[in-house]
Amino acid sequence: MGKVRTVLGDVDSKDLGIVDAHEHLIRTGGLEILKNGEDWRLNDVSKAIEEVKLFAQAGGKTIVDMNPISNGRDVQKLVEIAKAVPEVHIMTCTGFHEGRIYDNVIHWSATYEVNRIVDLLVADIEEGIDIYDYNGPYVERSSAKASCIKIGTAYGLITPVEEKLIKAAALAQQETGVPINTHTSGGTMAYEQAERLIRYGVKPEKIIIGHVQRNPDVWYHKKIAAMGANFMYDGSYRIKYLPDSSRAMLIKEMIKAGYQKHICLGTDAGRRTYHKTWGSGTGVDYDETVFMPRLRDEGVSEEAIQDIYINNPARFFSIDK
């Protein structure tokens, strides 16, 4: 399939094994914490290392940390985790969360021209991620490079700043060949994300739409998959949104409709209360220890499980340049 970029260097995509395609191991600061509270601050490397070890014990092989630019991304901590648990590949992203996570008046994501933003995204991917997380004014690049680009959109709309960042992400994707792995708010604007990215020249197979399981409208998912785009279904055991039965139903319906090869999974354990090592969570390994056996119990074939957990993400995250 090709190569995939990890924080310790490029590896063959066939070596990724079971992939958690949207995760949060480290988040040291940013407006997301200021708005949501200390539960969102994941700044303990030792706890993250133990969480990754639990993931490895459950059969996991690759974790994609999806904390984007200027939101507490700390590439040096991710490298430390990757070196401590070499049996698990750690990947990370460049790009942006939804617009509300930034000051849309003075933050550079709002004030820079599109081409300047593209240059910064490309440099994260091809030269190395800034150790200061583009919080400026100096830039000092690490040896670790980004494996994908994140974009995010608001609930039920795409703001002007988000429109600009989608265009920048699309241009950077075409220059680098890495996938775009997205954030949707409550599963909304998924079709609109795919439509815009494709219109800007991104191949649909390089698009992974995230969090859409929160809108488990099978017709809507089929419409997006028919465009050629892919899905990252996450949010394991988030009963406050939907029970796991909803995600299992959606996966089975999409398999039945012929879209088995458009799905990957992520746990998205972006809070202390979601991590076992912080003392109270279901863990980064939930999709391997609980949800995979459930899929088997509900009649999902081994072929489909292999695609969803291993083959599809290996293809999605391969660099196509």
- The DSSP helix count reads 11
Biggest beta sheet attributes = 8 strands, parallel
Estimate what percentage of residues fall within beta strands: 5-15%
Instruction: Give the total of domains.
Output: 1
Give, in order, the helices and strands: EEEHHEHEHHEHEHEHEHEHH
At the fourth CATH level, what is the homologous superfamily?
Answer: Metal-dependent hydrolases
Fraction in helix:
25-40%
Number of strands: 10
End-to-end gap: 12 Å
The CATH class label is: Alpha Beta
Helix/strand class: alpha/beta
The 3D shape can be described as globular
pLDDT averaged over residues = 97
CATH architecture: Alpha-Beta Barrel
What's the gyration radius in Å? Answer: 18 Å
Per the CATH scheme, the topology name is: TIM Barrel
Strand order of the largest sheet: 3-4-5-6-7-8-9-10
- What low-confidence regions span 5 or more consecutive residues with pLDDT below 50? none
Please explain how this structure is put together.
The chain is of the alpha/beta class. The protein has one domain (3-316): TIM Barrel, CATH 3.20.20. It has eleven helices and ten strands. It has helices spanning 31-36, 45-57, 75-84, 108-111, 114-126, 160-176, 190-199, 218-225, 244-256, 286-297, 302-316, and strands at 3-6, 9-12, 18-23, 60-65, 89-95, 148-152, 180-183, 207-210, 230-233, 263-265. It has an eight-stranded parallel beta sheet with strand order 3-4-5-6-7-8-9-10. Strands 1-2 form a two-stranded antiparallel ribbon. Helix 2 packs across helix 3, helix 5 (114-126) packs across helix 6 and helix 6 (160-176) crosses helix 7. The radius of gyration is 18 Å and the shape is globular.
